[in-house]
Specification:
homotetramer, 170 residues, alpha/beta, 7-stranded parallel β-sheet, 7 strands
Chain lengths: 170, 170, 170, 170
């Protein structure tokens, strides 16, 4: 079995410097732990997690996957190794979730909120990095609806988020 | 100009009898007001709004549109006139929003939450029918994030929701 | 049962004047015969069929459906009544086929070829209007592969194409 | 720059034993040459190319990418390392093309024909492995339409196909 866990890091284009740094650490720790990092392949949180993932000393190749909204592979940030230009615009957000064994939501604008909700629907473990204002923080520790008995897992640091992911994987 | 406003009615498979009845009224009032009704084409809220829309005395043809997750047109509820079997599974939810000039969210499970968030991202007017527990009620009157200066509009009845839609359309 | 047959008219942005005129007639005859017309909603063959459909004296509302590659409804040609802005770019071509009970391929560039092939895969009746050079003409009367026992039906005029559609529908 | 060329190997579920063997060799030679292999992730040609790619002694990780039509990662063949369960059913074929820097079409049923046509539309180099009956063989050496000045490149062996890919990449 060659497959390694694929973890989506979900977040916005314009994170605070503190959140950018934490997401970079998050990407690195995920690859350190033997996971691959899935993002939307663009800037901000997506770039930070990609950059972090590609800086891991445990990198083994193909660890940073980017699913772009457009059809031009050159729009990916430079740390994306596997680029999937979908051409699906917003529907690509759904694929960021279907491509992941678990998701980590960082910060909290509408795009991230939709991805948390989709991950919940699809039965994927959802970890929320509670660092900034917004939906990841608001939903940390909550149930989105009653279809599942678990909750969105709160993590207050990259290290806690990775530990939560590893605990949630089968 | 032949196009009439297309309004998405978003909600779950298993509404309460009270919500089903209100969504049926909602569909009827939307078509009465000269709009078309867009839904996911299946059961529950989708069926109620479709049934209501098709019962309007102002019906002019093509008023009830259903965007299915699968590829089989026969999965549509019997009140869908225009059936778009997408085969996109969950990504079809995105199309329910892109196909609408405004959306009305009814009840509040994860699927509806994701659609509210996507509609917010796309700049579409969002009306929440505050009748049941769940996300439509929680988000009524709130801003999803700071990209827009407006808020999710609270409506406490089908009639209020239709009035809010008409006020929000250009 | 409110649903009427939905027939996709597939073809390019820049048809010859003769083909444009035949596709306009095709749209009109389809609506005359009680069908709805599905197109990609833009210019050329799509516009001709939409315009023709909306000029039928048998029009009953919602007869012209356009599935756009982008998310902006205003990109539809002015004869589209039901506009579905998908945001899926090229993947919207697949939806033009899944939304149809049968397809009529006009002219013959790569986009139309892909749609003929997809319709064949999905088991939909395929009619080819053999008027111009290109794939519709080349494939008229042929089998795409051996999964089906029928063939792409050749039609040499709009009237023949509509007769073939009506014969092919269940 | 971490990205390596991503080459889609397109073909059917039930190739002849000879074609299966050639596609396995094709996958291996692509990875030997420093490329990654993209397929639809299921059986037949997709499995052969995945298996071949994962057997290369030059494997560096993440070399075999599978884009599934469904949402269940476990449907991938066991040689897929990076699995993207799209849930898009047939529209996933479009993503097999958008994800590739060049495509190699093997055998010739309707699905492969649609992918050749989409690749042509998107301006991607198209190589046809002319081993079996069907569309890859028929289109080898041909132009799909006049939008491009090049042609579908004929290859009569895996080695020729890889040489053609390397010649076609920028």
């Amino acid at each position: 079995m060659l497959r390694r866990p694929q973890i989506a890091v979900l977040g916005a284009h314009a994170p605070s410097p503190r959140l950018y740094a934490e997401c970079e650490l998050l990407g690195r720790l995920l690859v350190d732990a033997g996971c691959r990092v899935v993002t939307g392949g663009l800037a901000g949180v997506m770039e930070a997690a990609s950059k972090g993932g590609s800086s891991s000393t445990k990198r083994r190749g193909g660890d940073v996957i980017g699913l772009l909204p457009g059809t031009d592979a050159d729009e990916a940030n430079p740390w994306v190794e596997i680029v999937i230009p979908t051409g699906l615009s917003l529907a690509r957000n759904v694929l960021c979730v279907t491509s992941a064994d678990a998701v980590i939501a960082c910060c909290g604008r509408a795009g991230t909120l939709s991805e948390i909700a989709i991950a919940w629907q699809l039965g994927k473990p959802v970890i929320a990095l509670d660092l900034d204002e917004g939906w990841a923080s608001k939903l940390a520790g909550e149930a989105i609806d009653d279809r599942r008995s678990d909750r969105v897992v709160r993590a207050t640091s990259a290290a806690e988020a990775v530990a939560a992911v590893l605990a949630a994987l089968p």
